[in-house]
Amino acid sequence: MKHVQTAEQPDKSRLRQLIIFIPLFFIYCLFYQKKAKSPS
């Protein structure tokens, strides 16, 4: 039982990283597009 829980933990942290990374990447893409569109 304990072995299954320890194997599950890294997967949860990886999922949490994805949940944090995806919105950041989306905001970065929008910001980059705005910067590329504007001359200044």
Topology, pairings included?
Layout lengths: L1 H36 L3
Unreliable parts: none
Radius of gyration: 18 Å
The overall strand count is 0
Beta-strand content:
under 5%
What global shape is seen?
A: rod-shaped
Q: Kindly report how far apart the N and C termini lie.
A: 59 Å
Structure description:
This protein is mainly α and 40 residues long. Helices cover 90% and strands 0% of the residues. It has one helix spanning 2-37. The radius of gyration is 18 Å and the shape is rod-shaped. The model has no long low-confidence stretch (mean pLDDT 82).
Keywords:
mainly alpha, membrane, transmembrane
Task: Summarize, please.
This protein is mainly α. It has one helix spanning 2-37.
